[in-house]
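Hello,

Our lab assistant flagged a job as stuck in the queue for most of the afternoon. It eventually completed. Since we weren't sure the result was trustworthy after the delay, we are filing this so someone can double-check. Below is the sequence as submitted and the structure that was eventually returned. Let us know if re-running is recommended.
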Amino acid sequence: MYSTKALRILSLLVLATNTCTVFCATAAAREIPVAVHVSSRGLDLSQRSDVRTFYSRLQHAAHVVCTDGDKVALEPLPDPLRCYEQALGAAIRSAKVPLLTQIYLATHTIQEAAALGIEVPEHVAAMQTVSSN
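-- returned structure --
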């Protein structure tokens, strides 16, 4: 089971990137940080099915934040896919839940994970290396 601190970390998807501006207000032309609350309430993050549910919630939140979502008067991003991948990666990195990382790695490479600072357990990296050969 995960600590209260870990669950608090999991409850937020904070979308901050190093070089990518998340959104700019059209009138003020300034950066506006965008965050979406993603709850793990009611989920047992030691169970694969619950972690898949949580992963889906993270994907949805990243999509909402990096596309038009429900925001008004904000210019669209020049590269929403890059924003989405960075936002999802930041959430996976912050969570530090091995099952969540495994689910992420089902659709992403170890190199993509490493580029976003996601720690990949050695046994998972070895399994992915073997399966890609």
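-- support follow-up --
The delay was a queue issue, not a problem with the job. The result is valid. The chain has one domain: 4-132. Residues 1-29 have pLDDT under 50 and may be disordered.
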